[in-house]
Amino acid sequence: MCGRYATARARQELIDEFQVQVDAVEKDLQPDYNVAPTKQVPVVLTRAPKDEPEDAAQRMLRTVRWGLVPVWAKDLSIGSRMINARFETVHEKPAYRRAFAKRRCLLPADGYFEWYVLEDSRTDDPAEGEKKAKKKPQKQPFFIHPKDGAVMAMAGLYELWKSPENEWVWTCTVITTDAPDELGRIHDRMPMIVTPDRWDAWLDPGLTDTDQVRELLTPAMARNFEAYPVSKAVNSVKNNGPELIQPSTNGG
Prior knowledge:
Blueprint: E1 5-7, H1 11-17, E2 22-23, E3 32-35, E4 40-47, E5 58-66, E6 84-86, H2 97-102, E7 104-109, E8 111-117, H3 126-133, E9 139-146, E10 152-162, E11 168-178, H4 181-186, E12 189-191, H5 199-203, H6 210-215, E13 225-229
Parallel strand pairs: 2-5, 5-11, 6-11
Antiparallel strand pairs: 1-3, 1-8, 4-5, 4-7, 7-10, 8-9, 9-13, 10-11, 11-12
EC number: 3.4.-.-
Pfam families: SRAP
Family: Belongs to the SOS response-associated peptidase family.
């Protein structure tokens, strides 16, 4: 899964990078080096203004709550369990299939975090394994990001949920896939990345053919990414700052 990531690009940088036409961010967009579920996160999406025809759709930048809440949900709490959608089944699952058809988005990121179970937490001895199973396994956080420093455009879906107070709440999820090669040794899943040449098609709400949409997504190559251990300070959502994505010199 992808449960933490960093997004620290300036507002104008995102607007320029993604050729945004409408800036719908209501508050200042602050760098976040420890994005966690239920936080407000920047997303890029294409949508027609209310009461306008589909061909009037414009690309916009806005912030939404991370953790998709289906339209039929009774409350927001379900969103904390729906931060990720598996690529293999996202087009079929009732909670995601409508959004996959026409409410797709991109989540800009500088990189993401995963936790690797340290070797001393593993054993082939059944008796020793039972003892260690009772203890919390030791995990080392890693920061994984594009080697060239380019922005990661994570494939996502967004949804609008109407609260009991009659207010519309925008929420989103990140689509994940199998992690390749070296990245898979750290964790077996990773965010699905959309390459720039496919941004237009991915964001196009007029493209609703499921098979065509699935063809837009291809797993990233491990050689394009760099992974290194970082401080365990990232384990706490209370910690935030550029130091969280710096390589750790003492294993955390």
